[in-house]
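Researcher: I'm preparing a figure for a lab meeting and need a structural model of a single chain. I don't have an experimental structure, so a prediction will have to do for now. The sequence is pasted below. Please return the structure as tokens so I can convert it later.
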Amino acid sequence: MGTRRALKDYNRDELAVATKVYIPMREGPNGGGLSRKHIMPEIDNSPLASGKLARDWSETTKRTQTDKVMKMKYGATEDADKPIAERVAELAKKRGVPMSHIATAWILQKDPVAAPIIGATKPSHIEQAAAALPLTLTAEEAAYLEEPYVPHKVVGALSP
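Model: Understood. Here is the structure written out token by token.
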């Protein structure tokens, strides 16, 4: 279903549609932008803080080694962000669920978020996101995740 059809029953003045495009995602002339050519490939990419809330930080992946945008967005704040990821891991272990479930459940409980941008690149990503839907964090758990949070500077297209 196209975006136009999905949004046709809503008043455009009362909607905010979040995207994760514009910032160059790779080197080269077509690495970023706001045209259809740039937007469509990015629909399939960048979930859960570039994966930082989905796995242990000591785990090395191709993405952690090569994703320049992830390093641009999160590299300077790793020391401040790591305690949050550790708390996500702690709650996931306590609840017996993957870290991605905790992160997804947290964002789903934030008002006015209607739906997280999950950036599925594999069927298993969609299955994991759907499996997180019934999970509800307690107020104490949400506060525990948020307590060490330090606001970040805006990075990318909207940077000052």
